[in-house]
Amino acid sequence: MPVRPTAEIRFEYTVPVLVIGGGACGLCAALAANEAGAEALVLERDQRPTGSTSLSQGLIPAAGSRFQRAKGVDDTPELMAADIQKKARNGADPAVVRALCDASGPTIDWLADAHGLDLHLVDNFLYPGMSRHRMHGTPNQDGAELQSGLLAAAARRGIDVLTHARVQDLFADETGRVTGAAFTRPDGAVETVGAGAVVLACNGFGGNAGMLRRYVPEIAEAEYWGHAGNTGDAVAWGEALGADTSDMGAYQGHGSVAPGFGLPLTWAVVTGGGIQVNLAGERFANEMRGYSEHAVEVLKQPGRVAWSIYDTRCEQPALSFEEYRQLVALGGVKRGETVAGLAAITGLPEAALTRTLQQAAAWTQGDGADPLGRDFKQTPPLAPPYLAVRTGPALFHTQGGLVIDAEAHVLRPDGTRLPNLLAAGGAARGVSGPSSWGYLAGNGLLTAVVGGRIAGTSAARLI
Ligand SMILES: Cc1cc2nc3c(=O)[nH]c(=O)nc-3n(C[C@H](O)[C@H](O)[C@H](O)COP(=O)(O)OP(=O)(O)OC[C@H]3O[C@@H](n4cnc5c(N)ncnc54)[C@H](O)[C@@H]3O)c2cc1C
Protein backbone atom coordinates (compact mmCIF):
# COMPACT_ATOMS: atom_id res chain seq x y z
CA MET A 1 0.00 0.00 0.00
CA PRO A 2 2.58 2.56 -1.03
CA VAL A 3 2.32 6.31 -1.12
CA ARG A 4 3.91 7.58 -4.33
CA PRO A 5 5.14 11.04 -5.32
CA THR A 6 2.65 13.20 -7.19
CA ALA A 7 5.24 13.91 -9.89
CA GLU A 8 4.76 10.34 -11.16
CA ILE A 9 1.16 10.82 -12.16
CA ARG A 10 -1.29 12.67 -14.37
CA PHE A 11 -4.77 11.88 -13.00
CA GLU A 12 -7.51 10.80 -15.40
CA TYR A 13 -10.00 13.05 -13.58
CA THR A 14 -10.31 14.82 -10.24
CA VAL A 15 -13.04 14.95 -7.59
CA PRO A 16 -13.32 17.37 -4.67
CA VAL A 17 -13.70 14.67 -1.97
CA LEU A 18 -12.49 11.12 -2.43
CA VAL A 19 -13.81 8.57 0.07
CA ILE A 20 -12.07 5.19 0.30
CA GLY A 21 -14.42 2.47 1.57
CA GLY A 22 -18.17 2.11 1.11
CA GLY A 23 -19.37 0.97 4.54
CA ALA A 24 -21.30 3.11 7.04
CA CYS A 25 -18.35 5.42 7.55
CA GLY A 26 -17.70 6.10 3.88
CA LEU A 27 -21.37 6.55 3.03
CA CYS A 28 -21.98 8.94 5.94
CA ALA A 29 -18.86 10.90 4.99
CA ALA A 30 -20.02 11.16 1.38
CA LEU A 31 -23.54 12.24 2.40
CA ALA A 32 -22.13 14.92 4.69
CA ALA A 33 -19.64 16.21 2.11
CA ASN A 34 -22.36 16.32 -0.51
CA GLU A 35 -24.67 18.20 1.81
CA ALA A 36 -21.89 20.70 2.52
CA GLY A 37 -21.61 21.36 -1.21
CA ALA A 38 -18.59 19.22 -2.12
CA GLU A 39 -19.02 16.46 -4.67
CA ALA A 40 -17.84 13.12 -3.27
CA LEU A 41 -16.80 9.89 -4.98
CA VAL A 42 -16.73 6.65 -2.97
CA LEU A 43 -14.31 3.91 -4.07
CA GLU A 44 -15.18 0.43 -2.80
CA ARG A 45 -13.13 -2.69 -3.45
CA ASP A 46 -16.05 -5.15 -3.46
CA GLN A 47 -18.58 -5.82 -6.17
CA ARG A 48 -21.31 -4.82 -3.72
CA PRO A 49 -20.55 -2.48 -0.83
CA THR A 50 -21.31 -4.38 2.36
CA GLY A 51 -18.35 -4.02 4.74
CA SER A 52 -18.47 -5.02 8.37
CA THR A 53 -21.44 -2.69 8.61
CA SER A 54 -23.67 -5.29 6.92
CA LEU A 55 -22.43 -8.01 9.27
CA SER A 56 -23.29 -5.99 12.37
CA GLN A 57 -26.52 -5.62 14.26
CA GLY A 58 -26.51 -2.02 13.07
CA LEU A 59 -27.05 -0.54 16.52
CA ILE A 60 -25.86 3.07 16.75
CA PRO A 61 -25.55 4.76 20.16
CA ALA A 62 -26.62 8.38 20.42
CA ALA A 63 -27.60 10.84 23.11
CA GLY A 64 -30.32 13.42 22.64
CA SER A 65 -32.05 12.00 19.56
CA ARG A 66 -35.69 12.75 18.92
CA PHE A 67 -36.36 9.03 19.41
CA GLN A 68 -35.05 9.25 22.97
CA ARG A 69 -37.06 12.38 23.64
CA ALA A 70 -40.24 10.72 22.36
CA LYS A 71 -39.77 7.93 24.90
CA GLY A 72 -38.82 10.26 27.73
CA VAL A 73 -35.23 9.01 27.98
CA ASP A 74 -33.25 11.61 29.84
CA ASP A 75 -29.80 11.42 28.23
CA THR A 76 -27.03 13.88 27.44
CA PRO A 77 -23.73 13.88 25.54
CA GLU A 78 -22.02 14.34 28.93
CA LEU A 79 -23.52 11.11 30.29
CA MET A 80 -22.68 9.26 27.09
CA ALA A 81 -19.08 10.51 27.16
CA ALA A 82 -18.78 9.48 30.82
CA ASP A 83 -20.00 5.94 29.99
CA ILE A 84 -17.48 5.63 27.14
CA GLN A 85 -14.59 6.90 29.27
CA LYS A 86 -15.54 4.74 32.25
CA LYS A 87 -15.41 1.63 30.06
CA ALA A 88 -12.15 2.79 28.44
CA ARG A 89 -10.68 3.64 31.87
CA ASN A 90 -10.26 7.22 30.62
CA GLY A 91 -8.05 5.92 27.83
CA ALA A 92 -9.90 7.60 24.95
CA ASP A 93 -9.13 11.07 23.59
CA PRO A 94 -11.60 13.30 25.49
CA ALA A 95 -11.94 15.80 22.65
CA VAL A 96 -12.81 13.09 20.13
CA VAL A 97 -15.22 11.39 22.54
CA ARG A 98 -16.96 14.67 23.23
CA ALA A 99 -17.24 15.59 19.56
CA LEU A 100 -18.78 12.20 18.76
CA CYS A 101 -21.22 12.33 21.66
CA ASP A 102 -22.26 15.93 20.90
CA ALA A 103 -22.94 15.04 17.28
CA SER A 104 -24.55 11.64 17.94
CA GLY A 105 -28.18 12.66 18.63
CA PRO A 106 -28.30 15.15 15.74
CA THR A 107 -26.76 12.51 13.45
CA ILE A 108 -29.48 9.98 14.22
CA ASP A 109 -32.11 12.66 13.53
CA TRP A 110 -30.26 13.57 10.31
CA LEU A 111 -30.24 9.94 9.12
CA ALA A 112 -33.95 9.58 9.84
CA ASP A 113 -35.25 12.97 8.75
CA ALA A 114 -32.90 14.07 5.97
CA HIS A 115 -32.05 10.62 4.59
CA GLY A 116 -35.12 8.51 5.24
CA LEU A 117 -33.61 5.76 7.40
CA ASP A 118 -36.21 3.86 9.40
CA LEU A 119 -34.76 3.95 12.93
CA HIS A 120 -36.09 3.31 16.42
CA LEU A 121 -34.77 3.42 19.96
CA VAL A 122 -33.90 0.00 21.39
CA ASP A 123 -35.35 0.31 24.86
CA ASN A 124 -35.83 -3.29 25.99
CA PHE A 125 -32.34 -3.97 27.33
CA LEU A 126 -29.13 -2.22 28.32
CA TYR A 127 -25.62 -3.32 27.40
CA PRO A 128 -23.09 -3.53 30.24
CA GLY A 129 -21.72 -0.06 30.96
CA MET A 130 -24.50 1.86 29.22
CA SER A 131 -26.41 4.01 31.69
CA ARG A 132 -29.28 4.99 29.37
CA HIS A 133 -31.23 3.42 26.54
CA ARG A 134 -29.38 5.01 23.63
CA MET A 135 -28.99 2.32 20.97
CA HIS A 136 -30.80 3.13 17.73
CA GLY A 137 -31.54 0.41 15.21
CA THR A 138 -33.33 -0.39 11.97
CA PRO A 139 -36.65 -2.31 12.07
CA ASN A 140 -34.97 -5.73 12.35
CA GLN A 141 -31.89 -4.47 14.21
CA ASP A 142 -29.72 -5.63 11.38
CA GLY A 143 -26.59 -4.04 9.86
CA ALA A 144 -27.50 -5.07 6.32
CA GLU A 145 -30.65 -2.95 6.65
CA LEU A 146 -28.55 -0.02 7.85
CA GLN A 147 -26.14 -0.40 4.94
CA SER A 148 -29.02 -0.63 2.41
CA GLY A 149 -30.60 2.48 3.89
CA LEU A 150 -27.32 4.40 3.56
CA LEU A 151 -26.77 3.20 -0.02
CA ALA A 152 -30.30 4.26 -0.94
CA ALA A 153 -29.70 7.67 0.63
CA ALA A 154 -26.45 8.06 -1.34
CA ALA A 155 -28.25 7.11 -4.55
CA ARG A 156 -30.99 9.67 -3.88
CA ARG A 157 -28.32 12.36 -3.51
CA GLY A 158 -26.65 11.31 -6.75
CA ILE A 159 -23.43 10.23 -5.01
CA ASP A 160 -21.31 7.89 -7.10
CA VAL A 161 -20.18 4.70 -5.36
CA LEU A 162 -17.67 3.06 -7.69
CA THR A 163 -17.43 -0.64 -6.87
CA HIS A 164 -14.80 -3.19 -7.88
CA ALA A 165 -12.32 -0.38 -7.23
CA ARG A 166 -9.60 -1.46 -4.84
CA VAL A 167 -7.38 1.47 -3.94
CA GLN A 168 -3.74 0.39 -4.03
CA ASP A 169 -1.68 3.56 -3.96
CA LEU A 170 -2.10 7.09 -2.75
CA PHE A 171 -0.15 9.96 -4.27
CA ALA A 172 1.16 12.81 -2.14
CA ASP A 173 3.37 15.86 -2.49
CA GLU A 174 6.33 16.72 -0.26
CA THR A 175 4.09 18.48 2.29
CA GLY A 176 2.04 15.33 2.84
CA ARG A 177 -0.92 16.62 0.83
CA VAL A 178 -2.67 13.65 -0.77
CA THR A 179 -3.34 14.47 -4.40
CA GLY A 180 -5.15 11.33 -5.50
CA ALA A 181 -5.27 7.56 -5.69
CA ALA A 182 -4.73 4.64 -8.03
CA PHE A 183 -7.21 1.77 -7.89
CA THR A 184 -7.34 -1.65 -9.49
CA ARG A 185 -10.29 -3.04 -11.43
CA PRO A 186 -11.14 -6.77 -11.51
CA ASP A 187 -9.46 -7.22 -14.92
CA GLY A 188 -6.21 -5.84 -13.49
CA ALA A 189 -6.56 -2.42 -15.10
CA VAL A 190 -5.32 0.46 -12.96
CA GLU A 191 -7.24 3.75 -12.96
CA THR A 192 -6.39 7.00 -11.23
CA VAL A 193 -8.34 9.84 -9.69
CA GLY A 194 -7.19 13.14 -8.24
CA ALA A 195 -8.73 14.58 -5.09
CA GLY A 196 -8.98 17.79 -3.13
CA ALA A 197 -9.41 15.93 0.16
CA VAL A 198 -9.37 12.24 1.04
CA VAL A 199 -11.42 10.40 3.67
CA LEU A 200 -10.07 7.01 4.77
CA ALA A 201 -13.14 4.90 5.56
CA CYS A 202 -11.66 1.47 4.87
CA ASN A 203 -11.94 0.14 8.45
CA GLY A 204 -9.19 -1.60 10.43
CA PHE A 205 -6.96 -4.65 10.03
CA GLY A 206 -9.16 -7.58 11.12
CA GLY A 207 -8.59 -9.15 7.69
CA ASN A 208 -4.79 -8.96 7.95
CA ALA A 209 -3.42 -11.98 9.84
CA GLY A 210 0.08 -10.52 10.12
CA MET A 211 -1.13 -7.28 11.68
CA LEU A 212 -3.41 -9.20 14.07
CA ARG A 213 -0.49 -11.31 15.28
CA ARG A 214 1.60 -8.19 15.72
CA TYR A 215 -0.91 -5.90 17.43
CA VAL A 216 -3.59 -8.12 19.05
CA PRO A 217 -1.95 -11.52 19.59
CA GLU A 218 -4.37 -12.45 22.40
CA ILE A 219 -7.30 -12.67 19.96
CA ALA A 220 -5.45 -13.49 16.73
CA GLU A 221 -6.45 -17.17 17.00
CA ALA A 222 -10.19 -16.45 17.32
CA GLU A 223 -12.35 -16.48 14.23
CA TYR A 224 -12.59 -13.09 12.51
CA TRP A 225 -16.25 -12.23 11.93
CA GLY A 226 -15.76 -8.89 10.27
CA HIS A 227 -15.30 -8.09 6.60
CA ALA A 228 -12.33 -9.90 5.06
CA GLY A 229 -11.43 -6.94 2.85
CA ASN A 230 -10.46 -4.78 5.82
CA THR A 231 -6.72 -5.36 5.61
CA GLY A 232 -5.27 -2.34 7.37
CA ASP A 233 -4.70 -0.19 4.28
CA ALA A 234 -5.45 3.06 6.14
CA VAL A 235 -2.73 2.35 8.68
CA ALA A 236 -0.22 1.51 5.95
CA TRP A 237 -0.92 4.72 3.98
CA GLY A 238 -1.08 6.85 7.12
CA GLU A 239 2.24 5.59 8.40
CA ALA A 240 3.84 6.20 5.00
CA LEU A 241 2.55 9.78 5.15
CA GLY A 242 4.01 10.31 8.62
CA ALA A 243 0.77 9.96 10.59
CA ASP A 244 0.61 8.76 14.17
CA THR A 245 -1.19 5.56 15.23
CA SER A 246 -2.51 4.63 18.63
CA ASP A 247 -4.40 2.01 20.68
CA MET A 248 -3.36 -0.67 18.20
CA GLY A 249 -4.12 -3.35 20.79
CA ALA A 250 -7.79 -2.37 21.05
CA TYR A 251 -10.52 -4.40 19.41
CA GLN A 252 -14.16 -5.44 19.56
CA GLY A 253 -14.32 -9.10 20.45
CA HIS A 254 -17.44 -11.12 21.11
CA GLY A 255 -17.79 -13.90 23.62
CA SER A 256 -20.85 -15.56 22.13
CA VAL A 257 -21.05 -16.34 18.47
CA ALA A 258 -22.71 -19.56 17.41
CA PRO A 259 -20.18 -21.58 15.42
CA GLY A 260 -21.73 -23.59 12.62
CA PHE A 261 -24.62 -21.16 12.32
CA GLY A 262 -22.63 -18.08 11.37
CA LEU A 263 -24.78 -16.00 13.71
CA PRO A 264 -23.95 -14.07 16.87
CA LEU A 265 -25.96 -14.61 20.04
CA THR A 266 -26.82 -11.16 21.34
CA TRP A 267 -25.46 -10.32 24.77
CA ALA A 268 -28.98 -9.13 25.62
CA VAL A 269 -29.66 -12.68 26.91
CA VAL A 270 -26.84 -12.25 29.40
CA THR A 271 -27.67 -8.75 30.62
CA GLY A 272 -31.11 -10.00 31.67
CA GLY A 273 -29.53 -12.65 33.91
CA GLY A 274 -28.05 -15.29 31.61
CA ILE A 275 -24.70 -16.93 32.31
CA GLN A 276 -21.94 -18.70 30.44
CA VAL A 277 -20.46 -22.04 31.48
CA ASN A 278 -17.62 -24.08 30.06
CA LEU A 279 -17.80 -27.77 29.14
CA ALA A 280 -17.34 -28.62 32.82
CA GLY A 281 -20.62 -26.79 33.56
CA GLU A 282 -18.81 -24.02 35.46
CA ARG A 283 -18.77 -20.27 35.06
CA PHE A 284 -15.33 -18.86 34.35
CA ALA A 285 -15.57 -15.03 34.23
CA ASN A 286 -17.84 -12.11 35.12
CA GLU A 287 -20.11 -11.90 32.08
CA MET A 288 -21.22 -8.38 32.98
CA ARG A 289 -17.84 -6.78 32.35
CA GLY A 290 -18.79 -6.86 28.68
CA TYR A 291 -19.03 -9.13 25.67
CA SER A 292 -15.83 -7.85 24.06
CA GLU A 293 -13.40 -8.82 26.80
CA HIS A 294 -15.33 -12.06 27.32
CA ALA A 295 -14.05 -13.32 23.95
CA VAL A 296 -10.57 -13.93 25.39
CA GLU A 297 -12.08 -15.73 28.40
CA VAL A 298 -13.98 -18.12 26.12
CA LEU A 299 -10.84 -18.62 24.03
CA LYS A 300 -9.08 -19.91 27.16
CA GLN A 301 -11.73 -22.58 27.89
CA PRO A 302 -11.34 -26.23 26.87
CA GLY A 303 -12.34 -26.61 23.24
CA ARG A 304 -12.75 -22.79 23.04
CA VAL A 305 -16.41 -23.38 23.77
CA ALA A 306 -18.94 -21.94 26.22
CA TRP A 307 -22.65 -22.59 26.61
CA SER A 308 -24.74 -19.46 27.07
CA ILE A 309 -27.62 -20.33 29.40
CA TYR A 310 -30.69 -18.16 29.94
CA ASP A 311 -34.46 -18.39 30.18
CA THR A 312 -37.52 -17.21 28.27
CA ARG A 313 -37.60 -13.92 30.21
CA CYS A 314 -33.99 -13.15 29.21
CA GLU A 315 -34.86 -14.13 25.64
CA GLN A 316 -37.47 -11.38 25.18
CA PRO A 317 -35.15 -8.55 24.00
CA ALA A 318 -33.21 -10.98 21.81
CA LEU A 319 -36.35 -11.71 19.81
CA SER A 320 -36.18 -8.18 18.32
CA PHE A 321 -32.99 -9.17 16.47
CA GLU A 322 -33.39 -10.75 13.04
CA GLU A 323 -30.21 -12.77 13.61
CA TYR A 324 -31.55 -14.24 16.85
CA ARG A 325 -34.80 -15.25 15.17
CA GLN A 326 -32.73 -16.98 12.49
CA LEU A 327 -30.72 -18.80 15.16
CA VAL A 328 -33.97 -20.08 16.69
CA ALA A 329 -35.32 -21.13 13.30
CA LEU A 330 -32.11 -23.02 12.49
CA GLY A 331 -32.23 -24.96 15.76
CA GLY A 332 -29.28 -23.19 17.40
CA VAL A 333 -31.23 -22.51 20.59
CA LYS A 334 -31.65 -25.63 22.76
CA ARG A 335 -34.38 -25.93 25.36
CA GLY A 336 -34.51 -27.93 28.60
CA GLU A 337 -37.67 -28.04 30.72
CA THR A 338 -35.50 -28.90 33.73
CA VAL A 339 -31.81 -28.71 34.59
CA ALA A 340 -31.56 -32.44 33.91
CA GLY A 341 -33.17 -31.93 30.52
CA LEU A 342 -30.78 -29.07 29.76
CA ALA A 343 -27.80 -31.22 30.75
CA ALA A 344 -29.02 -34.00 28.49
CA ILE A 345 -29.48 -31.79 25.45
CA THR A 346 -26.20 -29.88 25.87
CA GLY A 347 -24.06 -32.76 27.10
CA LEU A 348 -23.00 -30.69 30.12
CA PRO A 349 -22.42 -32.58 33.41
CA GLU A 350 -25.71 -32.44 35.31
CA ALA A 351 -24.27 -32.19 38.82
CA ALA A 352 -21.98 -29.28 37.99
CA LEU A 353 -24.66 -27.48 35.98
CA THR A 354 -27.15 -27.84 38.85
CA ARG A 355 -24.60 -26.47 41.29
CA THR A 356 -23.77 -23.51 39.02
CA LEU A 357 -27.43 -22.58 38.52
CA GLN A 358 -28.21 -22.97 42.23
CA GLN A 359 -25.27 -20.75 43.19
CA ALA A 360 -26.29 -18.05 40.72
CA ALA A 361 -29.89 -18.19 41.97
CA ALA A 362 -28.71 -17.81 45.57
CA TRP A 363 -26.60 -14.76 44.64
CA THR A 364 -29.65 -13.07 43.05
CA GLN A 365 -31.29 -13.27 46.51
CA GLY A 366 -28.24 -11.78 48.22
CA ASP A 367 -27.27 -15.18 49.64
CA GLY A 368 -23.49 -14.97 49.22
CA ALA A 369 -21.58 -13.22 46.46
CA ASP A 370 -20.07 -14.30 43.17
CA PRO A 371 -16.30 -14.82 43.56
CA LEU A 372 -15.93 -13.77 39.91
CA GLY A 373 -17.36 -10.37 40.84
CA ARG A 374 -20.75 -10.26 39.08
CA ASP A 375 -23.55 -8.51 40.95
CA PHE A 376 -26.38 -11.01 40.52
CA LYS A 377 -28.78 -8.98 42.66
CA GLN A 378 -29.59 -6.84 39.59
CA THR A 379 -31.63 -9.63 37.96
CA PRO A 380 -34.10 -12.35 39.02
CA PRO A 381 -32.96 -15.99 39.13
CA LEU A 382 -33.19 -18.03 35.95
CA ALA A 383 -36.37 -20.11 35.82
CA PRO A 384 -37.30 -23.17 33.76
CA PRO A 385 -37.64 -23.78 30.90
CA TYR A 386 -33.95 -23.09 30.30
CA LEU A 387 -32.48 -22.08 26.92
CA ALA A 388 -28.91 -22.67 25.81
CA VAL A 389 -26.69 -21.89 22.83
CA ARG A 390 -23.27 -23.38 22.17
CA THR A 391 -21.02 -20.40 21.63
CA GLY A 392 -17.46 -19.51 20.78
CA PRO A 393 -15.22 -16.42 20.70
CA ALA A 394 -14.79 -14.05 17.77
CA LEU A 395 -12.97 -10.93 16.72
CA PHE A 396 -15.44 -8.42 15.25
CA HIS A 397 -13.17 -5.53 14.39
CA THR A 398 -9.99 -3.75 15.43
CA GLN A 399 -10.18 -0.41 17.20
CA GLY A 400 -6.65 0.93 16.86
CA GLY A 401 -5.73 3.16 13.97
CA LEU A 402 -4.73 6.60 12.76
CA VAL A 403 -4.74 9.31 15.39
CA ILE A 404 -7.32 11.97 14.56
CA ASP A 405 -8.53 15.16 16.17
CA ALA A 406 -12.12 16.11 17.01
CA GLU A 407 -12.76 17.11 13.39
CA ALA A 408 -11.40 13.79 12.05
CA HIS A 409 -8.18 15.25 10.63
CA VAL A 410 -5.33 12.73 10.67
CA LEU A 411 -2.49 13.90 12.94
CA ARG A 412 1.28 13.50 12.94
CA PRO A 413 3.08 12.43 16.14
CA ASP A 414 3.71 16.11 16.95
CA GLY A 415 -0.04 16.78 16.89
CA THR A 416 -0.09 18.74 13.64
CA ARG A 417 -2.63 17.92 10.95
CA LEU A 418 -1.80 16.31 7.64
CA PRO A 419 -3.00 18.85 5.05
CA ASN A 420 -6.07 17.11 3.61
CA LEU A 421 -6.40 13.61 5.06
CA LEU A 422 -9.39 12.60 7.20
CA ALA A 423 -10.17 9.26 8.82
CA ALA A 424 -13.04 7.77 10.80
CA GLY A 425 -14.72 4.47 11.64
CA GLY A 426 -12.39 1.51 11.92
CA ALA A 427 -9.65 3.33 9.99
CA ALA A 428 -9.04 5.75 12.86
CA ARG A 429 -8.10 5.27 16.48
CA GLY A 430 -11.33 4.44 18.27
CA VAL A 431 -12.66 5.49 21.66
CA SER A 432 -12.07 2.19 23.47
CA GLY A 433 -8.68 2.72 25.10
CA PRO A 434 -5.74 0.42 24.44
CA SER A 435 -7.24 -3.08 24.87
CA SER A 436 -10.34 -5.27 24.56
CA TRP A 437 -11.80 -4.28 27.91
CA GLY A 438 -12.40 -0.71 26.75
CA TYR A 439 -15.01 -1.49 24.10
CA LEU A 440 -18.42 -0.20 25.05
CA ALA A 441 -21.17 -1.66 22.85
CA GLY A 442 -21.80 0.68 19.95
CA ASN A 443 -18.35 2.26 19.83
CA GLY A 444 -17.86 0.77 16.34
CA LEU A 445 -20.82 2.36 14.62
CA LEU A 446 -20.52 5.52 16.70
CA THR A 447 -17.13 6.22 15.17
CA ALA A 448 -18.25 4.99 11.73
CA VAL A 449 -21.59 6.79 11.42
CA VAL A 450 -21.07 9.90 13.53
CA GLY A 451 -17.32 10.04 12.86
CA GLY A 452 -17.95 9.53 9.15
CA ARG A 453 -20.33 12.45 9.10
CA ILE A 454 -17.78 14.65 10.90
CA ALA A 455 -15.03 13.57 8.49
CA GLY A 456 -17.16 14.32 5.42
CA THR A 457 -18.06 17.77 6.75
CA SER A 458 -14.40 18.53 7.49
CA ALA A 459 -13.33 17.30 4.05
CA ALA A 460 -15.84 19.62 2.38
CA ARG A 461 -14.43 22.56 4.36
CA LEU A 462 -11.03 21.96 2.74
CA ILE A 463 -12.42 22.39 -0.78
C1 LIG B 1 -20.72 -9.42 13.64
C2 LIG B 1 -20.52 -7.97 13.97
C3 LIG B 1 -21.47 -7.29 14.73
C4 LIG B 1 -21.29 -5.93 15.05
N1 LIG B 1 -22.29 -5.25 15.72
C5 LIG B 1 -22.14 -3.92 15.96
C6 LIG B 1 -23.20 -3.13 16.54
O1 LIG B 1 -24.34 -3.58 16.71
N2 LIG B 1 -22.94 -1.83 16.87
C7 LIG B 1 -21.72 -1.28 16.60
O2 LIG B 1 -21.51 -0.11 16.94
N3 LIG B 1 -20.74 -1.95 15.96
C8 LIG B 1 -20.92 -3.24 15.62
N4 LIG B 1 -19.93 -3.92 14.95
C9 LIG B 1 -18.76 -3.15 14.46
C10 LIG B 1 -19.19 -2.35 13.21
O3 LIG B 1 -19.72 -3.24 12.24
C11 LIG B 1 -18.01 -1.61 12.62
O4 LIG B 1 -17.38 -0.85 13.63
C12 LIG B 1 -18.47 -0.63 11.52
O5 LIG B 1 -19.32 -1.29 10.61
C13 LIG B 1 -17.28 -0.05 10.81
O6 LIG B 1 -17.74 0.71 9.72
P1 LIG B 1 -16.71 1.17 8.62
O7 LIG B 1 -17.49 1.91 7.59
O8 LIG B 1 -15.56 1.83 9.29
O9 LIG B 1 -16.15 -0.19 8.00
P2 LIG B 1 -16.84 -1.24 7.00
O10 LIG B 1 -18.30 -1.28 7.13
O11 LIG B 1 -16.10 -2.52 7.17
O12 LIG B 1 -16.51 -0.63 5.57
C14 LIG B 1 -15.18 -0.55 5.10
C15 LIG B 1 -15.19 -0.76 3.59
O13 LIG B 1 -13.92 -0.42 3.06
C16 LIG B 1 -13.65 -1.29 1.97
N5 LIG B 1 -12.20 -1.26 1.71
C17 LIG B 1 -11.21 -1.72 2.52
N6 LIG B 1 -10.02 -1.50 1.94
C18 LIG B 1 -10.27 -0.88 0.75
C19 LIG B 1 -9.44 -0.41 -0.32
N7 LIG B 1 -8.09 -0.52 -0.29
N8 LIG B 1 -10.03 0.15 -1.40
C20 LIG B 1 -11.39 0.27 -1.50
N9 LIG B 1 -12.22 -0.19 -0.51
C21 LIG B 1 -11.66 -0.73 0.59
C22 LIG B 1 -14.18 -2.62 2.42
O14 LIG B 1 -14.44 -3.49 1.34
C23 LIG B 1 -15.45 -2.21 3.19
O15 LIG B 1 -16.60 -2.27 2.36
C24 LIG B 1 -20.10 -5.26 14.61
C25 LIG B 1 -19.15 -5.95 13.84
C26 LIG B 1 -19.36 -7.28 13.50
C27 LIG B 1 -18.34 -7.98 12.65
| Percent helix range | 25-40%
Q: If you average the pLDDT, what whole number results?
A: 96
Molecular shape: elongated
- Given the structure, what is the number of helices? 15
Structure description:
By secondary structure, this protein is an alpha/beta fold. The chain is built from 15 helices and 21 strands. Strands 1, 2, 3, 7, 8, 9, 10, 20 and 21 form a 9-stranded mixed beta sheet that branches. Strand 9 (178-184) and strand 10 (190-200) form a beta hairpin. The longest helix has 21 residues, at 94-114. Flavin-adenine dinucleotide binds next to helix 1, helix 2, strand 8, strand 18 and helix 15.
Layout of helices and strands:
Blueprint: E1 3-5, E2 14-20, H1 24-35, E3 40-43, H2 51-55, E4 60-61, H3 66-70, H4 77-87, H5 94-114, E5 120-122, E6 135-137, H6 143-156, E7 160-162, E8 166-172, E9 178-184, E10 190-200, H7 209-215, E11 223-224, H8 233-240, E12 245-246, E13 251-258, E14 263-264, H9 268-271, E15 275-277, H10 291-299, E16 306-311, H11 312-318, H12 322-329, E17 334-336, H13 339-346, H14 350-364, E18 386-398, E19 401-402, E20 409-411, E21 417-423, H15 443-461
